[in-house]
Write a structure and sequence with these properties.
By secondary structure, the protein is of the alpha/beta class. Helix content is 28%, strand content 24%. It has eleven helices and 17 strands. Strands 1, 11, 12, 13, 14, 15, 16 and 17 form an eight-stranded mixed sheet that branches. Strands 2-3-4-5-6-8-9-10 form an eight-stranded parallel β-barrel. Strand 3 (68-71), helix 4 (74-83) and strand 4 (90-92) form a beta-alpha-beta unit. The longest helix is centred in the middle third of the chain and has 16 residues, at 199-214. Bound molecules: ligand LLP. Residues 49, 52, 70, 93, 153, 190, 193-194, 226-229, 266-270, 305, 309, 363-364 line the site of ligand LLP.
Length: 384
Amino acid sequence: MPMNTTNFPIESLRAESTPFYYYDLHLLDATLDKMKESSSFPGFHIHYAVKANSNPEILKRIAASGIGADTVSLGEIRAAIAAGFPAAKIVFAGVGKTDEEIAAAIEYEIGCFNAESDEEVGVIEEIAKSLGKKAPVALRINPEIDAHTHHYITTGLAENKFGIAMSLMPDVVEHCVNSEWIEFKGFHFHIGSQITDMTPYRILCEKINILQEEYPDLAIPTINVGGGLGIDYDNPEDHPIPDFDEFFNIFKNNLHLRPSQQLHFELGRALVAQCGTLITRVTFVKKGVNKQFVIVDGGMNALLRPALYQAHHKIENITSESEKTEVYDVAGPICESSDVFGENVQLPVTHRGDLIAIRSAGAYGEAMASSYNSRPIPASKFSR
Ligand code: LLP
């Protein structure tokens, strides 16, 4: 049986010039609907982590669903506003906000800064004062939790560039609450990305409970638990939508929110990964000594994750009609030996001109694409 298990509109895709990102907007909508249903508890608010995918069509669709946006640069703030996210529902995170970005965010009257150091709080305070506008600030605390994910995307452990260490936190809280120009909004945490075992989130809830007990007299309007919910890269058909019920219930059942306290989430990957596919075309099927290579026309320039994180994405030949399969290494055209999407991939017998789909590429795919080797950034096409 051919291994193309999905319903791609193959004839229309074949007519397009490759490589390009193909987004299934019906799946995006279904994912947003399910996420909203599963998170419909009092005080729960979702912000979409724009860094996962800032394609304007995708952003517009997400903004229309009514959730907020989590941004990490002025460019993302502008993209979010252009897509229709209200400024009050935008949070601005990131370890290296520039003065220009801070000033612009204050002028836009965004909902909250997530500040990552006492030094940053000082600069936000100064700029807020110079503009005569109070800045809403939450503090990103490093909760020292091992999220057991790839070391490049584990962020909650002690002493890394992100967040404020627990031991340094009390002074920074003092700084905020005593400042005339800062409105202290609460605490922010983010423990990592592509998290599929819920245990680290349960531990996070327990740590937050302890922290809240240590500050009985401090007003903490908001707790922000970041993002990180993972997706199934191996079997996108079986799990096109992540288990949002399991995820949100962890917080509902383990986190002791105070009366009228708000709980914020910053989900990126879980909302957009499965709706995106990188479509490439086979330029050559190349015979080696012991291997066969399928060379496709988009590589690490189009989708960096496999080269950068050794990430696995399911690979399909969506046009071959062969009943027979063969084993191939699937590689891109870039002059780097890491430019390989998969080794020993079983595909139906593959020929020059076939379309190869790299699945689950809607998050950190197009957003991380580059023009390395002077290749164009892939275009985007949408199911309507
Ligand atoms: N909040 C903060 C503070 C973050 O740093 C991130 C992601 C998120 C939320 C959203 O995380 P998500 O829900 O998407 O896991 N390029 C890597 C992932 C980097 C994640 C960076 N921070 C990848 O392709 O796997």
